[in-house]
Automatic annotation (TrEMBL):
Protein name listed in UniProt: Uncharacterized protein
Length: 178
């Protein structure tokens, strides 16, 4: 991806973030914030959670790659401001928003049906029979799987006991995005 293309995607994402903030809080001045650096997918939860916490909105990175935060009733605006500032300072690398090409989808399929499946089964988590590569590719869209007939994590306990598996058996292979 060229630097120009990367910047164009970053500008589009920032505009969408700003527009969403303004639509939700039209009477609030848009906070000033400057991008410090792009984040890899693996960094997003911990960096954004730390930024939110520093801004006075306690948050924690969850083991499955999300961010956990409690928003008290009446505190939504303060949370939205912190979220806007943190995501402006530390946006996801634009290369992560480019749809996967055929080669990347094949790589993802091979990873999920071999490495990920073996890892889950080694942790005594059953994995349903995967679809064929052709079916997997046919159901994959620009936004990810269109119809999720097969989920490698389908039998992972959603509670605290199962959460560690996301670190032990990562959902996506390294270098999927280059």
């Amino acid at each position: 991806m060229t630097a120009t293309a990367r910047q164009a995607l970053a500008d589009q994402a920032q505009t969408a973030l700003r527009d969403g903030f303004v639509a939700s809080y039209p009477d609030v001045a848009v906070p000033m914030a400057t991008r410090e650096r792009f984040l890899s997918l693996d960094e997003i939860p911990s960096v954004i959670a730390a930024c939110l916490t520093d801004a006075g909105v306690p948050a924690a990175a969850s083991p499955n790659g999300g961010i956990e935060s409690y928003v008290a009733q009446g505190d939504e605006e303060r949370h939205a401001i912190a979220d806007y500032v943190c995501n402006t300072r530390f946006p996801s690398d634009p290369k992560n928003s480019v749809p996967l090409n055929e080669s990347q989808i094949t790589y993802l399929y091979q990873y999920q049906t071999t490495v990920l499946t073996s890892c889950l089964e080694s942790a005594h988590i059953p994995v349903d029979t995967p679809p064929t590569l052709e079916s997997f590719m046919a159901n994959y869209t620009d936004q990810g799987p269109a119809t999720v007939a097969w989920k490698p994590y389908a039998h992972v306990d959603p509670g605290p006991l199962g959460q560690g598996i996301y670190k032990q058996c990562p959902q996506t292979p390294e270098h999927l995005y280059g």
